[in-house]
Amino acid sequence: MTVGNRVLQRQRRVDDNLVKAFAALPVAVVSDSMSRVFAGGPNLRPMHRAGNLAGVAFTVRTRPGDNLMLHKAIDMAQPGDVIVCDAGGTQPMP
Question: Pfam families from the entry (predicted)?
Fold first, then answer.
């Protein structure tokens, strides 16, 4: 049984030129070329304003209502990172 939080250090980072190349591609094409292995699923949705968003995913997993690890991710993120947070999903609409 794991108790407490774990913070893993980044092992490697995607080159900025690769991110720029992917930014020009439609999301569906990228997902299809990766066999949808790393797709976030249908519940993944943008929380930014209108426009394109491309960057290195900086992933966070936490419990619903607990934002401690999200704050840690904001502290650790580097320019160009896109913070992707799994906080336990959303409640279905009635």
Answer: RraA-like
Q: Which range of residues forms the domain containing residue 52?
A: 16-86
Per-residue pLDDT band for 16 (boundaries 50, 70, 90) equals confident
| Inside any domain, residue 5 | no
Structure tokens at 94: 């009635």
pLDDT one-digit tens code per residue, 28-80: 788 777 766 666 666 667 777 777 788 888 888 888 888 888 999 999 999 98
CATH of residue 76's domain is 3.50.30.40
Q: Are 78 and 54 in contact (CB under 8 A)?
A: no
